[in-house]
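Q: What structure does this chain adopt?
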Amino acid sequence: MTAGTRALALEHLHRYPAEAAKVLERHPATNVAKALADAPEETLAGVLALMSPIEAGACLEGLPAASRREVLQTCPVATSAALLRVLPEASRASILEGIAARERELIERALRLPPDSAGAAADPRACTLPDDLAVGQAIDRLRETGASVPPTLFVISRDRRLRGAVTLGQLLVAPRDWPVGSLRLASARTVSQRVSVSALASDQRRRGGPVAVLDPSGRLAGVLSEDALRALQERGAPRRATNLIGAICELYWCGMGRLLGEALAIPRVAHDDAGASRA
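A:
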């Protein structure tokens, strides 16, 4: 294994996490965890988020403690909770040790909710705007995040009560010294944090836009973005492929699986059958 080959594999992990996740799921979780231990946390989090929760949780458990902490703090809260939910209680508590108090609180809150609920799937870190924040300050804050800005943002009071929704276009044309709450806010779509995501995904086919998820006190608990809702819809959608597409994909997985397995030093299982070739 050369350094160049390993660098190529790590670049593939970063650029194509969904494809890489399908390949890595075919290897024992303990071997994958050892091979990925020195991958950048952002890359590792992206791949684990797309693996099946059981395999991803086992990989997380096999990572060094420092890497586990970074992964859980990099992943969306819903993803971190899903990874931990499949692990035994003792392992879960051990992995959460050392995580920043605020991040741990968010993850533990998601773990207490039913796994198929809107609250468990919502992002409590989603960008929201306080109603007393000046428009200019709001725009500066959005620029500083370094992430893509959703077209619709929720406006909340300082005690996290939902005021309404504002578009990015409204912010860009409004006077910079006006409070965000003084703009013409649209009514926001809301759901209880215990609503089933399957029911929500079905409803999303008829109604678009992000959804504000409220806790029992009526405060904003998190946001389900349009991308998250689209993923919920696709999760339950039947997958169809022609025989030709299936064959091409299988060839791809075989080739990429060998590249990743060798480049990341993941042992292949040797067969003792007479007709089988050894790794």
